[in-house]
Amino acid sequence: MADTAGQSRTDKELHTDYDVEVKLLAITPDCEQLLEQAGRLCYASGDKLGTSADWLKTRIKQGHESLIEHASATFYIRASRALTHELVRHRIASYSQRSQRYVKELQEEYITPPELAEKSAEATTLFHQSMSAAWDTYRRLLDAGIKPEIARYVLPNACATEIICTWNFREIRHILKLRSSTAALPEIRAVAGKIAAVMKEQAPEVFADIDC
Description:
Blueprint: H1 9-12, E1 21-27, H2 31-42, H3 55-61, E2 72-80, H4 81-87, E3 93-97, H5 114-119, H6 121-143, H7 148-151, E4 160-168, H8 169-179, H9 186-202, H10 204-207
Antiparallel strand pairs: 1-2, 2-4, 3-4
């Protein structure tokens, strides 16, 4: 499936088909006003707070991004463990993730890459067979008395997981720029796109320039 630019749908669009979930749980109240207040303190121009619609945009364009660290957002994300292994590399953050040590993964809940169906029905069938085999082995190990923390070794990277993430706005901008690249994992591009949509609505002065 090629388009007029010669790129496959997998490269350009397929990441939007990932069955991932992103929810905003919390955000700094009056975040843009707070950020402008923090920034204007640096320039002793607090008396001009709110007088320029593009003040924050201009500071960010100039590279003065330390001021946007004063606001943060917390997201709930449901995706694969392949994705969260990459996501938690962003260390200016706080994370709480569903445990596989203490929570038994009895249900076959996993993320199916849409690239499989794009390739062939056979690839999709093979993938689902592999998932079923992994969970069957996992349950048999539990039945044999193996602890969940050991039995989980047979579970795949595709296993669905839940994670709550808190980042300051500067880190969110960094994540969105890095993870929206065509070189990024398609699933994480899908998550980045959903986060970007939320943040552009919540703080347009800070995130409007992000192409995601």
